[in-house]
Automatic annotation (TrEMBL):
InterPro entries: ACT-like_dom_sf, ACT_dom, Asp/hSer_DH_NAD-bd, HDH, HDH_cat, HDH_CS, NAD(P)-bd_dom_sf. Its EC number is 1.1.1.3. Its cofactor is a metal cation. One of its GO terms (molecular function) is homoserine dehydrogenase activity. The active site is at residue 204. This is Homoserine dehydrogenase. L-homoserine binds at residue 189. NADP(+) binds at residues 8-15. It catalyses: L-homoserine + NADP(+) = L-aspartate 4-semialdehyde + NADPH + H(+).
Length: 429
């Protein structure tokens, strides 16, 4: 028996989904007796070359041809963005169709509404591809690790920024050069702000944290800082001190209190996340029973993302065979764990200062650190042109708010400019 599928959008991911469903249809039919078939595909342009073959009658520009077709039981959304994707998904769920989406923006911003609509209509919604592309993350967190209290999520979950920071580290490029290269190679969009300002990673952290920590998480719960201000000097000094700089998505659950941030962070070279380069993604998870785990792989691209989408489609076909529905309990409970001020968390901090190259200036800095009882783990001092010296200090662990106070007091000194302040990830907590 055939399971007709409606596909909304057929771009990079959608075209991969079409070809992968065709490749796996026999296997799914052998496994379940049900054969998934892409029946209708919504696009804007009927004549575009999509790199896969279609019967002309499969394509449509009318969403109603899919949403209003009673034979279609599974709808796959690969349009992206908020509208019209949100309206189409809510409409499909209301008409009792199961839904698969790769849309992180939509799930991060409207997840509770969408999950509650699915539950109210007795249908499933799956969105594995929305975080980490091919890497199985949501399934393991929701299913295989469900016996754990997950306390920590640490992820490199934006390929564009990881590519840029990797090129800055490996080839000594500055931010603008590395961004231009990422754009030339298709890793970064013409408007890269969602990636480089950390918003894309923050949206993915919202999805991961809500599932791992069993609570509703909002984008405003995440403290977000991008990588535009990271310089080639920061990357070089971090290297000298034994670290690499990564855009780290960090979620912690401490006895039901959450702290969530996305920010450039110094990672010790001995940490497994330090070796995640280029456009690869990784997620480090700590569970009270499982201990430490790390998931690694391709976070984007046509076939890696299609792998996750089609995995969800096959899960839905199995659900249909068994007559069951996948549920996401956190969204229904309406539970909201409190989010604590990240400023109370303890981290080592990296400070880069530009100071007048005169006797006594470093003593002033050292005096301030002493007065605020912040001890220094590493100090590097380099002479640069124009009577200026660059001073790099890595502190021992201090609360974020104390690092903030150090920076404010340094800024008030006449001969000193604070160029960068970044947290440092511990080797092993
Ligand atoms: N690309 C990746 O590597 C990747 C990785 C993980 C997740 N995702 C997610 O996957 C989703 C799709 O991304 P993508 O890269 O495949 O996007 P894309 O290449 O831009 O494809 C979007 C598709 O949607 C269609 N479309 C756009 N607006 C439409 C509208 N108003 N009505 C009907 N059709 C419309 C387009 O039709 P036309 O072709 O006719 O213009 C196109 O086929 C996004 O949510 C994205 O975040 C992508």
């Amino acid at each position: 028996m055939q399971i007709p599928i409606g596909l909304l959008g057929c771009g990079t991911v959608g075209a991969g989904v079409v070809s992968l469903v065709r490749r796996r249809a026999d296997r799914v039919a052998n496994m379940t007796g049900l054969r998934p078939v892409i029946q209708k595909i919504l696009v804007r342009d009927l004549h575009k070359d999509r790199g896969v073959h279609f019967e002309h009658e499969q394509l449509t520009t009318s969403a109603e041809d899919i949403l209003g077709d009673p034979d279609i039981q599974i709808v796959v959304e690969t349009i992206g963005g908020i509208e019209p994707a949100r309206t189409y998904i809510l409409e499909a769920l209301a008409r009792k169709k199961h839904v698969v989406t790769a849309n992180k923006d939509l799930i991060a911003l409207h997840g509770p509404e969408i999950l509650q609509t699915a539950a109210a209509n007795g249908v499933s919604i799956l969105f594995e591809a929305s975080v980490g592309g091919a890497i199985p993350l949501l399934g393991p967190l929701q299913e295989n690790l469900t016996a754990n209290e997950v306390t920590d999520l640490k992820g490199i979950i934006n390929g564009t920024t990881n590519f840029i920071l990797s090129k800055m580290t490996e080839e000594g490029l500055d931010f603008d050069e590395a961004l231009a290269l990422a754009q030339e190679l298709g890793y970064a969009e013409a408007d890269p702000s969602s990636d480089v300002d950390g918003l894309d990673a923050a949206r993915k952290l919202v999805i991961l944290a809500s599932i791992a920590f069993h609570t509703e998480v909002h984008l405003s719960d995440v403290r977000v800082e991008g990588i535009r201000h990271v310089t080639a000097s920061d990357v070089r000094y971090a290297d000298e001190a034994g670290y690499v700089i990564k855009l780290l998505a960090d979620g912690r659950d401490r006895n039901g209190r959450l702290s969530l941030s996305v920010r450039p962070t110094l990672i010790p070279k001995s940490h497994p996340l330090a070796h995640v380069s280029d456009a690869f993604n990784a997620l480090f998870v700590r569970g009270d029973a499982a201990g430490d785990l790390m998931f690694f792989g391709r976070g984007a691209g046509r076939m890696p993302t299609a792998s996750a989408v089609v995995g969800d489609i096959i899960a839905l076909v199995r659900n249909l065979k068994l007559g069951v529905v996948t549920s996401w309990p956190y969204a229904l409970a309406g539970s909201r764990k409190p989010v604590v001020d990240f400023e109370d968390d303890l981290y080592k901090f990296y400070f880069r200062l530009m100071a007048a190259d005169q006797p006594g200036v470093f003593a002033q800095v050292a005096h301030l650190f002493g007065e605020l009882r912040v001890s220094m783990e590493t100090v590097l001092q380099k002479r640069v042109a124009g009577g200026q010296a660059e001073i790099v200090i890595v502190s021992h662990e201090i609360p974020g708010k104390l690092a903030h106070e150090v920076a404010t007091r340094l800024r008030s000194m006449p001969n000193i400019a604070v160029e960068a302040v970044m947290p440092v990830e511990p080797v092993n907590e």
